[in-house]
Amino acid sequence: MSVQVENLEKSLAKLTIEVDADTVEKSLDKVYQKQKKNITIQGFRKGKAPRNIIEKMYGAGVFYEDAVNDMIPAAYEDAAKESELEIVSQPKLEVVQIEKGKPFIFTAEVAVKPEVTLGDYMGIEVEKSDVEVTDEEVMAEIDKERESNSRTITVDDRAVEDKDIVTIDFEGFVDGEAFEGGKAEDYSLTIGSHSFIDNFEEQLIGAKIGEEVTVNVTFPENYQAEELAGKPAEFKVTVKEIKVKELPELDDEFAKDVSEFDTLDEYKADIKKNLTESKEKEALAAKEDKVVEKIIENATMEIADLMVETQTRNIAEDFARRIQQQGLSIEQYFQFTGLNAETFLEQMKPQALKRIQSRLVLEKIAEVENIEVSDERVEEELKNMAETYQMEVDKVKELMGEEELKQLRKDLAVMEAATKVRDAAKEV
Description:
This protein has 428 residues and is α+β, with helices and mostly antiparallel strands. It is built from 11 helices and 11 strands. The model has no long low-confidence stretch (mean pLDDT 94).
């Protein structure tokens, strides 16, 4: 195998990779041996037809596609290493030559890590985040706790009001015809939750128990059921029961029930303390984000579209894995959101570009500032990982391997660079 490197504009490179004819022949024979059992030719038992006969019957290139797919992964990997380029994208491949008795030639267009020219990065001025906790925010937290400790009571002496929990029967009609999935009995609905389409819930306000009311709505244009999307519908709704949440009294007894404190004032003070700590952490993260944004604005770099495309796909695949863990497939997510793969990837692009820019400038800062991560810091991070995954540290090291450990050290250097520029920044 041999490789030629051509540097292109905007942080791109083109590798021309040549695989010798002997390797091509071996790959073709490998494919033949794998496929022959599925090939039937008159005059030969199934799976026994010689390769030359198959090639005469189906054409000389019958095995080329599979041979190409067999050769490319190893050849590209070797070529990438030999080129000594810092490749930051998936390759864009193109076959140049595949012919029996001749070398296999293909090209791989790749994005390489762009050179970064830093502008100002130390002592950056950013807007200060507000960390003050208001009484309203404290009360909002207390109200959440009251909600979770509430009880529901049935009321029968009035009509439906906002925030009520109603039990309803309903049936929906489009163009006078009942539609599938539009009927339910004893359905529990909180008025104002906006769990139903359009203004369905608001139209139930004022309805009395046992009364049938007509609710008119319009399905959204992007509704998951295409036959209903954008169409007006009429629902016949009967209110069967009205319930309200009864919140506990806001006093010392409540504080004792829900916390370790004896008085409401102590409980409030603790909530304020926790909210302040949370806001301070958020402010620190926000400061770092704003500083890095400014550094990106001050820096110069040429980022190839291929690099952005690769990062976009990585983000999308990570997102798909996370929602899969929650029991939702990416196809179901598309159905619920009205997105498709193309629009979803397009939405991910700005995030991908930002992630690339942030990483590049911080790596450059780590290099310029000679940030070196100590063995102790690496060991500390490995211990944290071991605790997270409930494994022994040695086992984590074993699973990571040498390259992953190098990457971990680089990641920690980037984190230290981020901390360094954040701490040096001025809040105004």
